Amino acid sequence: MAERELVILLAEDDEGHAYLIQQNLKDSGLANTVVHVPDGQAALDFIHCTGTFSHRTSGGAILLLLDINMPRVDGIEVLRRLKADPKTDEIPVIVLTTTDDPREVKRCYEMGCSSYVTKPVAYDQFVEAIRRLGLFLAIVQVPPEEK
């Protein structure tokens, strides 16, 4: 049986940032499916195949691009829940946020994030950072999620 494609789950409440991230990942050559959700609860629902994603079949590989400051359930809580659950603790989580506080960076790594990327404020730098992220994501290996 062939392995399913890696799905990039983008948890980002800022629609403008979400659009730029998706567009620049695509422009970098990344062909993976990117699923955008507007908050942490929707990210958890996607991963656990619950709520509006109850129809989703698990078993493929997921990589989560996670903003910290989101409504309903924030990114820190999403990260905590994923890493506390043996069924989801291997899902790679790349924190992608405007927060560059060293204490926040340290806390996310201590909680188990795979990488922490600060979104630059300047447009050109933002585009370049996402382009480089896309190049990285094109070669990264991710384990499939548990069924």
Automatic annotation (TrEMBL):
It holds the Pfam family Response_reg. Coiled coil: none annotated. Residues 7-134 form the Response regulatory domain. It comes from the Bacteria. Keywords: Phosphoprotein. One of its GO terms (biological process) is phosphorelay signal transduction system. The keyword Transmembrane does not apply. The modification 4-aspartylphosphate is found at D67. InterPro entries: CheY-like_superfamily (IPR011006), Sig_transdc_resp-reg_receiver (IPR001789), TCS_response_regulator (IPR052893). This is Two-component response regulator. It comes from Fimbriiglobus ruber.
